[in-house]
Amino acid sequence: MDQLLPPEIVEASQTFPAALAACGDLDALLRLKGAFVGREASHATRLMELLKTAPKEQKRELGAAVNGLKQQWEEGLKARQAELEAAKRKLGALAAAWDPALPPPQPPRGALHPLNRLMDRLVDVFRPMGFHVEEGPEVETEAHNFDGLNIPEDHPAKASSDTFYLAAHPELLLRTHTSPVQVRTLLRVAPDLAARGGIRFLAPGRVYRKDEIDPTHSPMFHQVEGMLVGHGIGMQHLKGTLEYALRALFGPDTEIRLRPSYFPFVEPGCEVDVSCPLCGAKGCRVCKGSGWVEILGAGLIHPNVLAYAGIDPGEWSGWAFGMGVERMAMMLSQTPDLRLFFENDQRFLKAMGGLD
Amino acid sequence: MWIERKVLAQEILAAAALDTRQLCEVLAALGFPVDGVATLEGTEALDVDITANRGDAMSHRGIARELAAKLKQPLAPIPTGTVSEGEALLPVRLEAEACPIYATAVLELGEGVTPEATQSFLRALEASPKRLPAVDASNELLLRYGHPTHAFDADAIRGAVTVRWAKAGETLVTLDGVIRNLTKLDLVIADEAGPIALAGVMGGDSTKVTEATRRVLLESAWFEPKVVRATARRHGLHTDASHRFGRGADPAMARVARDLLVARLQAWCQAKLIGAWTAGAVPAPAAPVNLDLPLLARVAGEAVPLEAAREALVRLGCAVSAAGDRLCIAPPTWRHDLAIAEDLAEEVLRLRGYEHIPSVLPPMEGPPEHLAPAYLLRQRVARRLAQLGFHQTVTYGFISPEADALFAAPDNPAAGRTLANPLGYEYSVLRASLLPSLKATAEQNLRQGSRQVQLFELAPTYRSTPAGPREHLTLAAVWGGVLGGEDYLSPARAVLEADLAGLARDLDIPGLPVIHRLADGLFGFEVELDALPRPQDRIIPVFRPFSRFPSVERDLSLLVDLSQSYAALHQAMTAALPAESLLELRCVDVFRHKSLPEGQQAWLLRMRFQAERTLVGDEVDGWVSAALAAAESLGAKLRA
User: Fold this and answer.
1) Which of B145, B146, B1 is nearest to B76 (CA)?
2) Which secondary structure element, helix H or strand E, spans residue B330, and what is its range?
3) How far is B464 from chain A (nearest CA, A)?
4) Number of domains present in the structure of chain B
5) Which range of residues forms the domain containing residue B53?
6) pLDDT per residue over A247-276, tens digit each?
7) Disruptive mutation site among B47, B296, B298 for chain A (greatest number of A CBs within 10 Å)
8) Distance in angstroms (rounded) separating the CA atoms of residues B252 and B286
């Protein structure tokens, strides 16, 4: 039978399966298809010409052989095409696939300064109790910073070793606490205090004292002042407010403790401790084993402070507190060095600040 | 102040029964927190924190008095000897009201030194013993009873002793060997030759007690606190004596301390009392203070029975009488801090314990106030910047004059913003701009290896005015380094001025602030917060209708000179387009490449049109042609 076919076609037919397997892509397969079953100058067209010219008695046998070969080639090509197409689809799918483990583009993420975050949080905590924010200048007069706060004229804090003064304006200084905001606010609201129904506010801000820069001191730091004036205000209201606020800050199980202390602008005065928020009052390095951490100073507003602002201390009374923001931030974060808060290393800010 | 437990227990026996922790807790509850506990000279001592108003507590006796009142336990009696006063051996004249009483004595010293127990006590309290009985006894009395005394070498005193104001030009060499130039505001002890001691502060060198001293003149007086404070401050001379007189000593202790001093010298060195006498008298006590029960109840948060309040005040040494619901209180001679009703209410609370104060939320008496728009604006700006990747910094408000000069306006001289007593030259000027601080911080971050630095600060800057520095709340932002390049989708590129301009626009800063090039690849701007639009009162803005017809977008690629002003081109093209249909005209690409004609660049301008109808192509084509013609009139060419 093979003797009826040209030897090169017989040979090609024998190498066809290997050639088919060698086609790595659809282009190569198309070329192979052209060579075997193409409409022009292919093995198949040659066979058809051969069949046309074959003697009549061979036609039947030759026809069967030719059809057999053509069918074999076409089926082979079709199967290989399907194989190659499937492989291509698979690659396409892989190329389009997303590996969720690859680091994605990161939307920008900055940070509020941790000290500002803490002050903002305090404002948030006091807002529901009707406190708003009052602010005042950092360059202050002696009257607002000292005199209006019942601080005696010869108080050591007034010395130039403790307080920064302006060279060209000896009567001006950098406020040493946020308490002058008390004086300014009371002076402003005194005329219509009754119509307002008293006043309650927070005064967060920057303050200055002449301290050398070291791990626990800074010539500039932050305080949050709180003040409330109303009728019949006593220590119980100070305790109630601080208990609410400090529980909101440190957790519902927080306990607070008032200890007698002295500040010229309050009477009675007290220091306020909270049960150590880091160890749950079990005793740790931060609370020095005592279970308590000192958090702020407070007291009932001294009658002289109210009177200075033109408010009758016989009718009105109130409380005030002052809190060191850095101290609280260091305690909560266990940051070992105060200077980190003013170095502004982005790594520190990112880690400590966040967005809120 | 260090309080030695053994000596404390001699003043109040009950203290011996408390362990250290209990003792510390009682003291803290009384307002005297213990900062530390140490073993000194083989005995335990507590470092007790005593507030400035409690000069009376600055001694073992003072602390014992507080414990006795709190624990309802008796104090040990003060072992005064039996010194009987007689005629003055030399005149002692009190010429200033600031010294109402001056108890004194003259003794002839014998052989003997300070007992070891007393030396050890002094060492434990960091007061080095001198082994001279007159000096050591005075120091011991001060630490134990809180009353400063002084011993003069009686043979060095010339003539009468006077307590008077110094005369201008007088000098005194104090015990520390320093020559003090005195003023008319200094109270001195003087003999007929001149001052021999700064009253209540320090003795003089010429009359000091030495090994050679045979006769001593003792001083146990009381000086006005204000006067002693002023002298101590004026001469920078803060001594144990000035601390106690300055905070108010007990005038009734003047004679007692003199007697105790005499008794010690008699016991320690067989001193012979030649004579003792007192000039002046204990000053009249301050007027009694009334405490009304309603005020006490208001402060305490609950009604306090009259009897309980009276009893507490009596325990503190007050003389108390009651009438109706009012207590009339004469404070003891050692308490100078009890001047108003609130002071006494505090004393009642303190003895009851602050732990008994109830916890009550204060009732609202009026509507709460809103947060100020300026405060809200600042919060909004800070949050927006943080969302955009910026880190908020907090830097010092004072900087060096050189740093300040970099960005200070010419009409803002540093002289008006300079501190009289700065921490150092580099912290001496209240800054006119936040940029010097942010520049330094940004450069520090870049040096530390940050690829990108994004910082902002919200803080006041200062402007010199005749009335002093005026504060302006200011926002500054700096941005530098490399953007992107940290993931497979974001190509890396340097931060550019344009990024800062985009940031300023995002923050609604009106106009374009000056973008400063602070260093290579580091830019910043600064704007006063007042310049920013205030947050709108409306929760959401008024509705403005918008077209629901499709918008049409057309791009024009133009070749323009490198010197072409975008604003001019934008304006010319906008003018050529129908305002009612033009939504937007913006440059969406700038292409600069050597393949373009030299001196030229390509701008891709995108126009978006929309109207209250469907726009047809011909109409839009006409507009685009008009815009192109306008651009061409400025020299632009359509890029092929």
Assistant:
1) B145
2) strand B326-330
3) 10
4) 5
5) 2-71
6) 999 999 999 999 999 999 999 999 999 999
7) B298
8) 14
